[in-house]
Amino acid sequence: MKRREFIKHGGIAGVLAAGTAPAFAQGQEFRWRMTSSFPKSLDTLYGANEQVAKRVAELTNNKFQLRTFAAGEIVPGLQVLDAVQNATVEVGQTAMYYYFGKNPTFSFATCLPFGLNNRQQNAWWHHGGGEQAYNEFLKAYNCVAIAGYNTGCQMGGWYRKEIKSVADIKNLKMRIGGPGGVILARMGATPQQIAGGDIYPALEKGTIDAAEWVGPHDDEKLGFNKIAKFYYAPGWWECNSMGHFIVNDKAWATLPKEYQHAFITACHESNVMTMAKYDHLNPIALRKLVAGGAQLRVFPRDVMQAAYKASNDQFDEWASKFPEFKKIYETWTKYRSDEALWFNVAEGSFDRFMGSLGSTGAAPAKGAPAKKA
Amino acid sequence: MKRREFIKHGGIAGVLAAGTAPAFAQGQEFRWRMTSSFPKSLDTLYGANEQVAKRVAELTNNKFQLRTFAAGEIVPGLQVLDAVQNATVEVGQTAMYYYFGKNPTFSFATCLPFGLNNRQQNAWWHHGGGEQAYNEFLKAYNCVAIAGYNTGCQMGGWYRKEIKSVADIKNLKMRIGGPGGVILARMGATPQQIAGGDIYPALEKGTIDAAEWVGPHDDEKLGFNKIAKFYYAPGWWECNSMGHFIVNDKAWATLPKEYQHAFITACHESNVMTMAKYDHLNPIALRKLVAGGAQLRVFPRDVMQAAYKASNDQFDEWASKFPEFKKIYETWTKYRSDEALWFNVAEGSFDRFMGSLGSTGAAPAKGAPAKKA
């Protein structure tokens, strides 16, 4: 058991152990550059960057320093993988599914539509063989990926009109990127790639009918509730969104083991801390959004079913074209099914009860039982 | 923002910074003893202990070593707090609600019946002021608590007969400890304290009608499915169960800052890793249990409502008797309500859909849409 544990947790360090500096050079200093796919305005995502840099410095008596750069400062936000692969920078903070155009296999590290939720993704990545399988795939890109943050299940975006059935998805012009856009296109929608700052005017003018961003905390800053008041859940295309720190493999091999451990541990800490921060901030923002006119809605069941079917059809297509995708997909899909069954039992039945209490029933000062039966 | 972040994340280090060794003594060695409330047979909980010890050694080039002891090896499992308070050992791994008999305020660190789920507890502890408020309370016990693992929502236990309504709770003799037992007693049941190894014969003979332990992975080892086949969800009295590493405050103050950071970071990493391990192992064990005759059930709504009311009534009583409880409870209860509302939106609607697909619908190879509407 102990030996298996060691191998499992030493997954990343293990991959490159052979190339590691042979002895810990006392006092040796490392100054690395870490570029992000995110702007500083996405304070929680970008904050993971800063937290990791701060913690690594604390753990190494300031001898291992990471200088952080926002998207565009030295590398454009969507070219972080290339910059790390080419050793332009040593480390990148990015969402791996941004690169799904190169190969859809990239998506497994972040999320797939109707994939794993936050805790299931952590389970698959750390204990279900995900990290090893994914880093095998990444070898061709000369980097290793370490899990470091998550947004949780995102929201399904802002709509100018209500979505009453799957027919309302057809011909919908929606700002959405990544694999989610591919699925919506299969359903007859027209996905559009629009940068964060340009979404508001496009939505206001009616150039687009809908737009998705992240969740309440990040969405609230952009003010969509003023021009597209129907706010839908869930963001089934981003049912969790695990973010990674990717390190150039040659740079990694120059690090003393102790610094490798410091970096990995700081990333893992940031994974739980960033999720906790979103879970703290989202309820506060949701309250403000609803007070500001947002109308909360859940996608109708037929929309969810059609999107689920379209997603699985797309996965089958990818599996037939990309052997790397197929290899991970076969174990991942069984994992997804087993996890969904288990989460429906204890976590699900508890969360459903608490969710059914509404805004007053959950106030225990009144000692009131729930009104809904 | 950065300054606030620093204060927030430096919470524990900050509390005792004044007493910290003034300069980092290069090469100074620390060998501490860490005693656990858990036996080694609870491999996942006890594994958190071992993971933290291993990681701290890796981060400090083996200069800070924690020697781990299982429950009873040097300190009985339920006396870990006392042993740390009296400096018999430097560190303890324990569930803080074990000590709720001293003061019910202890429960907030672990869970309260119908309290926060795993992610909500992380949010409250790390970003909602929980860690600071709790460590204020702990000062009187000469120790600091650092979050380090979680079981997630536990199961509601094994029953010889089905629970069809709240009337079936009355006169039920059930093995259950902690605050959950207090609530069940309010509902007319007779809670019994029975050590892990003695539960099976008591349940087999009918000395007790029901018993709760943890969740599928830990329960499966004890074989309850053979003698009390009705396996209920959720364990509303342990809707998350955050575990802690507690450190004697004088010992903590002797640690160089770098070692304090190593210990804190290793605990935070273990928090996400242990939850991920349970989430990996529980579906596997659940499958075996169901194959072995376990009949899965969800508590009827009237049982949940009565238990929820009894819990809130109990909290009100504690708040009127214990000012320390009242102080945390007032902010905690609002936090609970806001979090439950938010989790019902994105996470809830996604998990409900995935849970509704059943054991075949979630298998995407078939591309089948869900059968249930």
Could you list some keywords that capture this structure?
homodimer, D-Maltodextrin-Binding Protein, domain 2, globular, 373 residues, disordered C terminus, 6-stranded mixed sheet, 5-stranded mixed sheet, alpha/beta
Describe the protein.
- The structure is a homodimer of 373-residue chains.
- Chain A is α/β, with parallel strands linked by helices.
- Chain A folds into 2 domains: 17-151 and 240-280, Bacterial extracellular solute-binding protein, family 7 (D-Maltodextrin-Binding Protein, domain 2), CATH 3.40.190.170; 157-238 and 295-329, D-Maltodextrin-Binding Protein, domain 2 (3-Layer(aba) Sandwich), CATH 3.40.190.
- Helices cover 47% and strands 13% of the residues of chain A.
- The first copy, chain A, has 15 helices and 11 strands.
- Chain A has a 6-stranded mixed β-sheet. A 5-stranded mixed β-sheet of chain A has the order 2-1-3-10-4, sandwiched between helices.
- In chain A, strand 6, helix 7 (178-186) and strand 7 form a beta-alpha-beta unit.
- The longest helix of chain A is centred in the C-terminal third of the chain and has 35 residues, at 257-291.
- Chain A is globular.
- The first copy, chain A, starts with a helix and ends in a 12-residue tail after the last helix.
- In chain A, 57% of the residues are buried.
- Mean pLDDT of chain A is 91; it is low at 1-11, 13-25 and 362-373.
- Chains A and B meet through helix 1, helix 3, helix 5, helix 11 and helix 12 of A and helix 1, helix 3, helix 5, helix 11 and helix 12 of B.
